[in-house]
Design goal:
Helices cover 4% and strands 25% of the residues. It has 1 helix and 6 strands; from the N terminus they run ββββββα. The longest helix has 4 residues, at 73-76.
Length: 105
């Protein structure tokens, strides 16, 4: 199935053209909109029209069927968003020495 322009989106930080795909584990992943022979992902459109993606591994290192090679947009984004910490405003506490549990009050 040929790629169409109506399935593209725009990256909010670098304004590049991207496509959203669903991984094997059901998560969304942004891909560069154009096929890239240096990418490590195999993308394909399933029977429902959903763009799916899998990682090219040592066991399955070749494209199968109607797959096309893609690059994850996180690897090529020129202005990636800042990474968030676990909890904003909290600091990690460095404990020196052996750890002892708190005594109940």
């Amino acid at each position: 199935m040929p790629l169409s322009d109506h399935t593209t989106d725009q990256c909010t930080t670098c304004l590049a053209t991207i496509r959203w795909a669903i991984t094997v584990h059901g998560r969304r992943q942004a891909l560069d909109a154009t096929p890239n022979p240096q990418g490590n992902l195999a993308a394909y459109t399933d029977g429902t029209g959903t763009l799916r993606v899998r990682v090219l591994t040592a066991e399955r290192d070749r494209l199968e069927g109607a797959e096309w090679q893609a690059m994850p947009h996180a690897a090529t984004c020129t202005r990636p968003p800042a990474r968030r910490t676990a909890r904003p405003g909290r600091r990690a506490i460095a404990r020196h020495g052996a750890w002892t549990p708190r005594r109940p009050r």
